[in-house]
Amino acid sequence: MEGRLRSAWRPRALALLLALVVGLGFSAPGEVRAADPPPGRFLEHVVREGETLSGIAQAYGVSVGALVALNGLADPDHIVAGQRLRIPVVSRLEGPAPLPAPLVSVQALPLPAVQGSTLSVRVVAAGPVRLGGRLDDQRLAFAEGPDGYWALVGIHPLAEPGCHVLTLEVADAPAHTPTWQACVWVVEGAFAVQRIPLSPALGSILADVAAVQEEAHRLRVLFAQVSGPPLWRGPFAWPVDRPGDVSAPFGDRRAYGSGPATSFHEGIDFDASAGAPVRAPARGRVVLAEDLWVRGKAVVLDHGQGVFSGYWHLAEVEVQPGQWVWPGTLLGRVGSTGLSTGPHLHWEVRVNGVPVDPAQWVAGEVEAWPTWAGLWQRALAPRWPAHIPE
Question: What pLDDT, on a 0 to 100 scale, did the predictor assign at position 369?
Fold first, then answer.
């Protein structure tokens, strides 16, 4: 199981780590730019036609001077297509001004922030504090853990590569320092293009534009809610018995029929026999269990902290809204209802309404109540709200 788990997420993430880098930092107060990196860690970039050194430096979040020195360039204005450049890695988070009291430190992991990934932001403070924040327009919901405050950020699969401003809002800080900002560099994901043939029956589903839009709006409102603190512990489990049978990975760009690739796959599709069990990956509460127009028979779980998971195209639904579930609870059975070409399970995870790669959650690369002695350590259990049934 672990081998399949890691094969689903790590190859993509490792490939991106070898090709792209995130820089985080600032120069003068108010000016967002990437800081120069520490020595010893490098990537390689092959120059493409029309690229400039300044553009490459900006894309990777490093200074032109660092690239000139590292690559021994005599003329920074003269680089050619096919030329190989060493790129230094930057992975620290800094702001243009000191952290406002009582904040002590801010961390964001894992980096780089890949399209479609989940980023954990952890804040340590010297005392109690009321925290808010956002990444661009995405609001952050902070929870208090045993060793600090933390929030999750969903990096949209179509997010523009480059600098995205992380803003922390300290409600108890002095009036002259109410916020603190840093630059989170988002890098491209390795996504393919998938073309899906449309039968007349499937085409008729998409042809009802009003029904499609109404369903999308309803789910968008549902996924944007933050009902309370996190309900899950540790990594998620796979919802199917054979997680290695993936027919469509997360994030691939999608084209229906002969049309252009105008959308992307918001989850993972698993090949499975009709009637195969679909189980809850983590603790949560059922907030939707019904037949939808596009997604067929569907279940949505609320895991707290703005995290939801969805299960589409089921043949049968075995839970009811309001029901509490635990890892392994039977949610339903694999089917082919709604916009589907055959029996399979579509599984997706949302963070603050943003679709993110579920495989990262199974791989243990998203922390709940982290100890942060190391990204993968989970030494301390969460404080469970009293109203949640054990």
Answer: 52
> What is the per-residue pLDDT across 319-372, written as a single tens digit (0 to 9) for each?
999 999 999 999 999 999 998 989 999 999 999 999 999 999 998 888 655 433
In which residue ranges of the chain is CATH 2.60.40.10 found?
96-187
pLDDT tens per residue, range 162-211:
778 899 988 766 555 578 888 787 777 878 888 877 778 777 887 889 99
Return the closest-CA partner of residue 138 out of 123, 124, 152. 152
Residue 197 bridge partners (DSSP): none
Burial class (CB in 10 A: 0-12, 13-18, 19+), 339: buried
Helix or strand holding residue 165 (H, E)? strand 162-170
pLDDT at residue 8 is higher than 60? no
Residue span(s) of the chain under CATH 2.70.70.10 come to 193-362
What distance in Å separates the CA atoms of residue 187 and residue 16, rounded to the nearest whole number?
Answer: 8
Give first-to-last CA distance, the chain, whole Å. 27
- How does DSSP assign 312-325, residue by residue? EEEEEE---TT-EE
**Considering the domain 193-362, what is its CATH architecture?**
Distorted Sandwich (2.70)
Two tokens, residue 158: 């179509």
Neighbouring CB atoms inside 10 A of 2's CB total 9
Q: Find the helix or strand (DSSP H, E) in which 114 lies.
A: strand 113-114
**Each residue of 143-160: pLDDT tens digit?**
988 889 999 999 999 998
Sheet containing 253-256: which strands, arranged edge to edge? 193-196, 253-256, 263-264
Whether 161 and 59 have beta carbons less than 8 Å apart is answered as: yes
**CATH architecture of the domain formed by 96-187:** Sandwich (2.60)
Give per-residue pLDDT as tens, 258-283: 777 778 999 999 999 999 999 999 99
Burial of 19 (0-12, 13-18, 19+ CB in 10 A): middle
